[in-house]
Design a protein that fits this description.
The protein is mainly beta. It has one domain: Porin. It is elongated, with a radius of gyration of 25 Å. The chain starts with a helix and ends with a strand.
Length: 306
């Protein structure tokens, strides 16, 4: 569905641009200029529920401990605190087309991809197959998205053949949102010594709309080549819910005698990603997660004018 939303948005925006070109007065079109160029920059979205919620969720649950001398069993609480650092600045790369239909205004159409990741590891006790063991736990998380946008740019200061100062506003569709988390357990001793167990979560979200406004400067290097830098802020119109068909994939067995409460699960009623409370009282103490992509962007672009 998110691929479909992205394709529809691209078609709509491209059609709108074609209509503007077709309806433009012949004299204006004759003086217009196009520019096309790649850009590279950074975006640091807020994503509070991820950074302050799911990333700080523990690995919890219950383990059955077996006393092999008298064959008795006891239940022992599992609690591994392995918080992930907040997602930092992620790389944002893409391509942008501009049509300057007069000296002050330009139509903007573009697309880009963004990705950021976080990882952490900790060593501690973690029972398996009824025996207390030592394990190294490694958590890795990656969040990515694609976006397509259309908007306007207005030049406020123009020094011919030298530079322009401008502000810009775009309507963005963020789509193909993917979140992946991997938890690896490397057992150091006990019956599973040398064995690696893992939990893999892969979720996606449908497209969300956002507004982006900012300011920038464009320097002309040659008649047909320029360099520009933009600073802008992205504001999402709503949060995104991550979904997956089924709970996280794991290779723990029934014979491992574990009842795990993982940092995340797919809600049984909502089918959306939920995260475990930091002070979870039971296996149902999960909270809904929404992704908020609000945040600053800084982009650098090379423009070929034609």
């Amino acid at each position: 569905m998110h691929f479909l939303l992205g394709d529809v948005s691209k078609l709509f925006s491209f059609t709108a641009l074609c209509v503007l070109v077709a309806l433009a007065p012949r004299a204006v079109f004759a003086e217009s200029k196009f520019s096309l160029g790649p850009f590279l920059g950074m975006h640091r979205p807020v994503v509070e529920d991820l950074n302050e919620g799911e990333f700080k969720s523990p690995i919890s649950g219950m383990a059955t401990i077996v006393n092999f001398q008298d064959d008795t069993q006891t239940q022992e609480r599992i609690y591994i605190q392995n918080p992930l650092p907040a997602l930092g600045i992620g790389a944002n790369a893409g391509l942008e087309l501009q049509w300057a239909y007069n000296a002050k205004y330009s139509v903007i159409v573009g697309g880009s991809s963004w990705e950021a990741s976080s990882s952490a590891s900790v060593q501690g006790p973690f029972a398996i197959q009824g025996v207390r063991s030592d394990v190294i736990t490694v958590r890795t998380a990656t969040l990515s998205y694609n976006e397509f946008y259309v908007g306007l740019r207005r030049n406020t200061v123009i020094v011919p053949d030298k530079f322009k100062l401008y502000y810009r506003a775009t309507l963005n569709e963020i789509f193909d949102i993917d979140y992946r988390e991997n938890i690896a357990f490397n057992y150091l001793n006990g019956p599973a010594a040398g064995v690696n167990k893992s939990v893999i979560l892969e979720t996606q979200a449908t497209g969300v709309l956002a507004l982006q406004t900012g300011i920038g400067v464009e320097f002309f290097l040659l008649k047909w080549l320029s360099f520009s830098a933009d600073a802008s802020y992205l504001i999402g119109l709503r949060g995104a819910s991550l979904q997956e068909n089924g709970d996280p994939k794991q290779d723990f067995l029934f014979s491992d005698n574990l009842n795990l409460w993982l940092p995340q699960r797919i809600g049984p009623e909502s089918s959306n990603l939920e995260y475990l409370s930091q002070e979870a009282a039971n296996k149902e103490d999960y909270r809904p997660l929404k992704l908020n992509f609000d945040g600053w962007k800084l982009l650098f672009r090379i423009n070929a004018l034609f």
